[in-house]
Amino acid sequence: MHSSQLCTIAIGGSAEEKENGLWRQYQLTRDSKIRDRLVEQYAPLVKYVAGKVAANLPASVEYDDLVGYGVFGLFDAIEKFDTDKHVKFKTYAVTRIRGAMYDHLREMDWVPRSVRQKAKEIEQAVMLLEARLGRPASDSEIASSMNLREDEFSHLMSKISSTAILSLNDIWNPGTDSEKLCIGESIESPRGLNPDSSVEKEEIRRVIKQAINELPEKEKKVLVLYYYENLTLREIGQILEVTESRISQLHTKAIIRLKAKLTSCRKGIF
Fold first, then answer.
1. Does 49 lie in the same domain as 144?
2. Which of 12, 159, 180, 230 is 20 to 30 A off residue 238, Cα-Cα?
3. What is d(CA 234, CA 116) in angstroms, rounded to the nearest whole number?
4. What is the tens place of the pLDDT at every residue in 204-215?
5. Rounded distance, CA 34 to CA 214, Å?
6. Which domain holds residue 59?
7. Per residue in 81-103, pLDDT tens?
8. What is the helix (H) or strand (E) element at residue 182, kind and residue range?
C-alpha cells in the first residue's frame, strides 16, 4: 500500500483517532512522507519549547538557534516514540526537544570553568553528606561540610543557578547507546508513565523515582511544574509566591541532589 493511500485511511473519526492512525501508519511503514507530515504537525511545539527555555537563559542565547536545534529533538522524538506506552507524543517530545536545546548550549561551553567546578564540588559534598545522613541535607549542613558560612553558600548557589546549565535532560547511560535513559522521562507525572519492559531500565527508573520522591517538597514541586507542566521559572515563582531567582536556586539544588544521589547509587546497580 502506498503512503498516499495510507494517509487517507483515517479521514473519518475524531482528531485523536486520525492522529493515532497516522502514528500507526508511520510505525508500520517508516514512510518519509508520513514523517514529514508529523514534523509539520508538531513544528509549533518546537517554538513553544524554545520560548520556555529562552525565558530562563541569558539574552545572549539566540531564540532561533534554540528552534534550530529543537527540530533535531523533534526528529529524534518521532523516530523513538512508542505508541504502545500510551503516553501522549507531546509529553514525550517536549523532553527530547528540550534535551536537544540543552545539548547545543553545552556545546557552546559558555559556562565559566570556575562555576562548573564549584557545581561539582557542591555535588560531591551533597553526595557524601546525604549518604551519611540518610536524608536530604539542609543548606546549613552543606555549607558547614564545605567550610562555608551559610550566606557564602547561598551566594555560591545564586551564582551557579544563574549561570550553569543544569537539567534533567542529562542522560544516565548504563551501557550501550540503545539503553540510554533520560532522567527527565522518569519524573512521575500525575498520570504516571508505563514502565519499560527492560528489567535493567526499570531498576534505573525505580532508583531515579525514589531519588526524586526523597527531595524536599518544594524542590520536587519545582521539578514537576517545570518538566511536566512546562512552566517557566518565573511562572513557577508566581504560583509558589517566591522570586524567580529563588525558584532557580531550588531547581539547581534539586538537580545537584539528584546527580549526587544517582552517582552514589550507580555502583550498586551495575
1. no
2. 159
3. 24
4. 677 778 888 889
5. 43
6. 3-108
7. 988 877 889 888 998 898 889 88
8. strand 181-182
Reply yes or no on whether the pLDDT at 144 is more than 60: yes
Q: How far apart are CA 176 and CA 255, in angstroms?
A: 24
Question: Burial, 242: exposed, middle or buried (Cβ in 10 Å; 0-12, 13-18, 19+)?
Answer: middle
- 141 and 76, same structural domain? no
- Tell me if 35 sits within 8 A of 22, measured CB to CB: no
Tally of CB atoms within 10 A around 101: 29
pLDDT of 186 higher than 80? no
In this structure, what are the phi and psi dihedrals at residue 204, rounded to the nearest 5 degrees?
A: -65, -45
Q: Is 86 left (phi over 0), alpha (psi -120 to 50) or beta?
A: left
The model's pTM is 0.67
Can you give the pLDDT at residue 196?
Answer: 43
Percentage of the residues of the chain whose pLDDT score is greater than 90: 36
Sign of CA dihedral 45, 46, 49, 50: negative
- Are 161 and 228 part of one and the same domain? yes
Q: Which residues contact 133 (CB under 8 A, 6 or more apart)?
A: 141
The pLDDT of residue 178 is above 50: no
* Cell numbers representing residue 98 in the block: 528540550
d(CA 64, CA 233): 21
Q: How many domains does the chain have?
A: 2
Query: Do 130 and 257 form a contact (C-beta atoms < 8 A)?
Result: yes
Same-domain status, 131 and 234: yes
C-alpha cell at 11: 479521514
Query: Average pLDDT of 152-168?
Result: 80
C-alpha cell at 45: 511545539
